[in-house]
Design a protein that fits this description.
Layout (H helix, E strand, L loop, with lengths): L2 H11 L8 H14 L2 E2 L1 H10 L7 H11 L5 H14 L3 E8 L6 E8 L2 E5 L11 E2 L6 E5 L2 E5 L8 E7 L2 E12 L6 H6 L12 E6 L2 E6 L2 E6 L2 E6 L3 H12 L3 H8 L11
Antiparallel strand pairs: 1-10, 2-3, 2-9, 3-4, 4-5, 6-7, 7-8, 8-9, 10-11, 11-12, 12-13
Length: 270
């Protein structure tokens, strides 16, 4: 990563450069997840206006965060964060994760002080700290109605993450430890722009803070604090524009225009 982009990225995160350590990694992860939301308004916006159907370049990614309070979906959030960590001297791997299909998600595995951690800023989840991989028992993260369970590694060194919502298994993935290059994800990133792809047919924005979160999923706003979640109906697309601007700071005209390219309102976790 070019030095000026590295410093700009750290400025977006509001952190200073430090030597690699577990404490410094925790600071970076917390800053990334709290300051850079998971959202697909930017995906719709750039696809509609720039014809973007591949990974967003880092300068444009940072432009969107600074100008429009954008974030990104899993590919930009995790790949650019991986690049930042590597440039800061961390021992990191970019790895594939299987959902319904192989390698449709990417994660970061970081080695610090002889221990390996899963870092994922692209799952719309409250992972404000690196998740330990050397587990003997389940590692659980809870917030509101959601319970995330990271299982001990299987015989192949893979880590299964399960999302339970209201006690029911809703989603998840299996993270694989083999290092990958971003080019290995080219086809699946292109596929994420097909007409029936999830994030061209749903709205999902999620921002996390210590102990609480705010999520907009299609026409519902979900506010979680501790073990409690409250859901609020959004009365149509006009109100959706206002809700996104109010809670995420993305300008109404940008949201309105992006939603004009939205093809449907699928369940993003289906």
């Amino acid at each position: 990563m070019e030095p000026d982009l590295l410093q700009r990225y750290l400025g977006v995160l509001g952190v200073s450069r430090r030597a690699p350590s577990l404490d410094a990694l925790r600071e970076l992860v917390a800053a990334h997840v709290t300051r850079i939301p998971f959202e697909n308004i930017s995906k719709l916006h750039y696809h509609r206006h720039l014809g973007l159907n591949d990974l967003i370049p880092l300068p444009l990614y940072l432009d969107g965060i600074e100008r429009y309070h954008f974030g990104g979906t899993c590919y930009p959030n995790n790949f650019h964060f991986y690049s930042l960590l590597a440039s800061l001297g961390y021992d990191v791997k970019l790895c594939g994760a299987d959902m319904a299909n192989p390698d449709v998600h990417m994660v970061i595995l970081a080695q610090v002080d002889g221990q390996e951690y899963l870092v994922d800023g692209g799952y719309a989840a409250p992972f404000l700290a690196p998740l330990p991989r050397g587990l003997q028992a389940d590692f659980v993260v809870t917030l509101g109605r959601d319970r995330y369970v990271l299982k001990p590694q299987d015989v192949n060194g893979c880590s299964r993450l399960e999302l339970y919502r209201d006690g029911i298994l809703k989603h998840g993935y299996v993270a694989k430890p083999s290092p990958r290059k971003i080019e290995d994800f080219h086809a699946v990133i292109i596929d994420s722009f097909r007409p029936d792809a999830t994030f061209l047919n749903a709205v999902l924005l999620a921002r996390f803070y210590p102990g609480r979160s705010l999520v907009i999923h299609n026409l519902t706003r979900i506010e979680s604090s501790g073990p409690e979640s409250a859901m609020f109906a959004i009365g149509g697309r006009s109100q959706l524009v206002a809700e996104v601007e109010k809670h995420f700071g993305i300008p109404a005209e940008v949201v309105r225009d992006a939603l004009a390219g939205l093809m449907g309102l699928k369940d993003a976790w289906a």
